[in-house]
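QA checklist item 7 of 12: single-chain prediction sanity check.
[x] sequence parsed
[x] length recorded as 261
[x] structure emitted
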Amino acid sequence: MPTKTQIRHANAAARRKAAVEVPKPNWPPLTPLIPTSDLSLETLLEDQVIIARNLFTSTLCKKYVSFLSALPLKTTPGQPEKGDALRVNDRFQVEDPAFAEQLWSSTSLKDLVTGASDGPKVTEEERKRLWGGLVLGINPRIRVYRYKKGQFFDQHYDESNVITLPTIPPTPAKTTWTLLVYLTGPTTGCVGGETVFYPELGPARSYPGSNNEDEGKPLVVELEVGMALLHKHGQDCLLHEGRKVIDGEKWIIRSDLCVKR
């Protein structure tokens, strides 16, 4: 009888295969953008949760919501597959290395993550320890999520995946951090839908947790238009959830940081 992990891996493989077969959208240009010099990474939870405000401008977010609304989104089933958390949302996914490279290099994401924008504040080895290795870019499997009123993503862990980046020659890689880019928030009429982390329960591999009382409280990340959220996944992933949307729509572009393996 297959284990829960084997079932989850099988489900993930099926989703990857489906993403490859989907035609690539004609994504709008990633403009306008705020200069990298005006942006920075902000740590919300040490070595676990990091944000970059205004990675996308509000104008770009509005343009992308309009574009993504026309994609053939599919509603996830109310009854999750065995081994998966309950999630109710509309989603679209596609394997698109070209758009992944644009999202990585055309925005400030690459410079912020690799430290090209902040000088010698952090050593290369410290950066590798933070991100789980030498960062190569982001996962070509792009996912788009829309949460309408009443939809949510129950408590869960994000898994790390072993992938091969379609470079010449192909590059062995693995994912280490989840990337979420929020396109809507309270200023666009979206109420609820916050991402909540539970550090007191420890990461997926389980450890007693911190002695710091503040670190034991749930961390609530409010939606913010254009903000990128990075959080560690795999064995170090914290239990987290996407709260129910009370009103409006919550739109997200999802990928992952990839490191060399």
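[x] summary fact logged: Helices lie at 4-20, 58-68, 97-105, 109-114, 124-131, 213-216.
[ ] second reviewer sign-off
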